[in-house]
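Need residues for this backbone.
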């Protein structure tokens, strides 16, 4: 059985993390949970640097008796850093994040605290998985937790060229209605955004970000991947569980090669020319 660290961005008392942690613990895994003490969604990979981080073990918690649970005043990335440095006595086999209430598809991963918590694990060389239920209105997390258990069992038997960072989205349907499991590439999930201006009770203005999701946008395939590999946005629409391998190195190799092919950028031109 594996030693698993779990975090999230929905907070320590969210139903998603409780379902994930309890399912893994009841299957015999050693589970430690370190989560924000409140919702910290869309915080990206932010860190708390200018104020102290407060943390406490949740003795009277909503988790299974075999789960060690801590709440932390910091961001999701803070939680994983704190857990690895100050809570865990042994290095975990996996860092898991979620189960997030809502999808993390396409470019959502750039803003996601859920994905950032998992990314913090892979930065430390630990295989890491971010789990998301692709709905804000569905509260049935058990199918996602059951799949997480199966996936981690499978991953524990696989050797990797490097520790993987996987973003897993589960469609909000019954297990019997899931079409299958696909390895996907990151899609493009854009929004028509606007800031709605409102007034507070004292007559001062404030703004609320809102927007409409645009999912049906064609995106060129990765030149290094077969063209038949679907995006996560496409596959989740067809009720597939999507497994999207991510990386923290954002270097655009295509543009690097293109710029090096241009005389201006090939190192022959000095700054003072």
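Answer:
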């Amino acid at each position: 059985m594996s030693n698993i660290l779990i975090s999230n961005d929905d907070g320590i008392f969210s139903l998603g993390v409780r379902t994930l942690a309890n399912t893994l613990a009841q299957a015999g895994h050693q589970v430690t949970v370190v989560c924000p003490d409140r919702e910290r969604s869309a915080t990206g990979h932010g860190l708390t640097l200018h104020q102290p981080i407060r943390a406490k073990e949740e003795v009277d918690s909503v988790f299974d008796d075999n789960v060690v649970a801590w709440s932390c005043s910091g961001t999701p990335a803070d939680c994983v850093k704190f857990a690895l440095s100050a809570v865990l006595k042994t290095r975990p086999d996996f860092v898991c994040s979620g189960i997030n209430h809502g999808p993390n598809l396409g470019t959502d991963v750039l803003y996601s605290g859920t994905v950032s918590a998992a990314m913090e694990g892979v930065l430390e060389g630990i295989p890491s998985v971010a789990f998301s239920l692709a709905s804000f209105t569905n509260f049935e997390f058990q199918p996602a937790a059951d799949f997480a258990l199966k996936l981690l069992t499978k991953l524990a038997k696989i050797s990797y060229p490097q520790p993987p960072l996987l973003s897993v989205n589960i469609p909000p349907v019954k297990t019997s209605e899931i079409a299958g499991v696909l390895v996907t590439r990151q899609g493009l999930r854009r929004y028509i955004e606007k800031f709605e201006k409102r007034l507070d009770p004292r007559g001062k203005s404030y703004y609320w970000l809102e927007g409409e999701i645009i999912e049906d946008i064609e995106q060129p395939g990765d030149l290094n991947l077969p063209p038949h590999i679907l995006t996560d946005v496409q596959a989740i629409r067809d009720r597939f569980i999507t497994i999207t391998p991510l990386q923290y190195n954002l270097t655009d190799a295509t543009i690097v090669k293109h710029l090096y092919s241009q005389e201006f950028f090939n190192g022959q031109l000095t700054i003072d020319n």
